[in-house]
């Protein structure tokens, strides 16, 4: 009995020793002719799994400016594309080699103005992993709690970030992911303020920077129909468009039930049957690239972005494994691996996360949304739709603001409610991934964000 008690005590002791700790796997300099850029790689070991990150230190004085945390879409896609397609100091190029020596200086790196934290999030994407005893979240609410736990550990490891502005930057499904994260952080902060014994570091996001955000299934789905079947050039023929149209009413009906009455995994999966098209319909049958309608169609969808194959080769190279300090816990880096299947199997995307932003904006966090106008996967008009309906202190001003045309050195497009804490920007000639075509613009948004403002194009 005594021995058994001791064994279980030791076991419990060793488990607590190995969770909620930060393990640095490697600190390296990234040099592609752009000077030495310090990068710290590591894991945050949590109860439910192990989250991989790289912290790209801001260049020179920029390391004191602020912290930008980048999230990607999916659901379940890693954010590790961003540092290597222009946001980090060194990037891949279409005719280059997928190796560290093949990287070239990025012309407009975010790291000129801020520190950049990139995560293989959620657990199960990229180098993040779980053991068979660990059960990571498979929906964005539970995964947000895991990220909040990680952020607490990161803020304790680097106390300087407690005093710097923190910007939550996302792409695509990151509109849902980011809404959950921002609201979870706020909720836990408020709980900690009520609890005298809490050891929590209370830190709020200064700004949310959402690129082509999927944050409301309903408005994105009817907006998609509008841009692919009701706008010239139409992406599909009459037969396919009328099938979409037939499913649309049923889909929206089911999403409303989920929103207003009852939300279960089974009901979400049922809604998916009417709301989500097959990859063949999305990518093989349209006449153009759904992510950028001025480009030729791409199928399978990993061919839609030139860097996707190169990034996968780079991340899986022995050289990169060593550089990152990744050991043999995990065989292969996937852009969207097990995490994506877990989230899709739970139909996580049948939701309208934008509503979670109300208390976040009320508490003083700014929101800047930008959208490439050539995108038909998460179309601008769907984003404008939920922003026009999100209760918050700036809603009246936002609704009263006209859509203004913009033309300047950084871009041509539109802006609604410029110079405020809630702004929407539409970008001509940009698709789903604005960073790919308008790196100078996104860099400017970051530069201004860490100064405590939303970028104002006017
Ligand atoms: C990770 O957790 C999931 C359950 O969420 C499980 O199915 C899977 O096998 C685990 N992964 C590994 C490598 O054990
Ligand atoms: C529409 O496109 C689908 C898929 O390419 C094809 O099978 C069908 O025959 C087309 N219908 C018409 C009326 O052209």
TrEMBL record:
Keyword terms: Carboxypeptidase, Glycoprotein, Hydrolase, Protease
Glycoprotein is among the record's keywords: yes
GO molecular function: serine-type carboxypeptidase activity
Transmembrane segments: none
InterPro entries per record: AB_hydrolase_fold (IPR029058), Peptidase_S10 (IPR001563)
Keyword Transferase listed: no
GO biological process: proteolysis
PANTHER family associated with the record: CARBOXYPEPTIDASE, SERINE PROTEASE FAMILY S10 SERINE CARBOXYPEPTIDASE
Entry's family note: Belongs to the peptidase S10 family.
Name this protein carries in UniProt: AB hydrolase-1 domain-containing protein
